[in-house]
Amino acid sequence: MLIHPQFDPVAVAVGPIAVRWYGLMYLAGFIAFLWLGKRRAAQQAWHGIAPADVDDLLFYGVLGVVLGGRLGQVLFYEPGYYLAHPFEILAVWKGGMAFHGGLLGVLVALWLWARKTGRSFFQVSDFVAPLVPLGLMAGRIGNFINGELWGRVADPGLPWAMVFPYVDPLPRHPSPLYQAAGEGLLLFIVLWLYSTAERKRGSVSGAFLVGYGLLRFTAEYFREPDHGIFGWSYTVSMGQWLSLPMVAFGLWLLLRKPAR
Q: Among 100, 125, 135, 194, who pairs with 242 as Cys (CB 3.0-4.6 Å)?
């Protein structure tokens, strides 16, 4: 069986200043957003977004990801811990960012940017949706480096079954890598290709919600469940509960009739 490498979470340290791999993965995601966004804005004028707008969009998005992701972790997964240790809420460099909270934060940020610039919300969200998955992939790689979100116990005969020594000596699924491949790379390819043709407003956003929701729901069966506000469950995990509204709203966006 494979053994988790137990990486040092600090990539570079100079005196008291430490640069962590987790932060570098977020930086990689933001760089991918900028590069892909500027490329797409230059190629597809029908989005109504210019390359110069992408920098502004990223600024709003970063605020939404960080604030929403952290609050999501606090409210959905560990309210008791953070109530007892309130200053830990600010320690984002230690990890602990909930995707579903980050999604809500980004949606609010996009709504504010759309309102400021006089664009419709779905015009902006359809442009942004294909740019997100590579950032999600980088984040999951950061989780793996940090040794977080280890998987459920796996068949010892599974070629890639992995032991996480700081957890127990049992073979487990390397679930962060599953999520990096599914919610990250695969979803990016699907959305990028789907969004190359002009679609009705809201369709690309709907495809993102359905795609992520289904891939996350599936990945949760290989991931050790989190202790969420609905309790600890191997049947339906907190991540699965939070993914169901995404799928439902995404289907509505895909199936609704175009506005006249």
A: 100
CB atoms within 10 A of CB 17: 7
- Cβ neighbours of 145 (radius 10 Å): 22
Long-range contacts of range 92-96, CB-CB < 8 Å, 24 or more positions apart? 92/66, 93/20, 93/22, 93/23, 95/22, 95/142, 95/143, 95/146, 95/148, 96/70
Handedness of CA 133, 138, 139, 141 (dihedral sign): positive
CB 120 within 8 A of CB 201: yes
Q: How far are the Cα atoms of 137, 222, 230, 251 from residue 4, in angstroms, in the given order?
A: 19, 16, 30, 38
Handedness of CA 9, 11, 13, 17 (dihedral sign): negative
Cα–Cα–Cα angle for 224, 229, 233, nearest 5°? 35
Tens-place pLDDT, residues 8-58: 988 888 888 888 888 899 899 999 999 999 999 988 766 789 999 999 999
| Distance between CA atoms of residues 61 and 19, nearest Å | 22
Is pTM, for the whole model, over 0.70?
A: yes
Structure tokens at 68: 């929403």
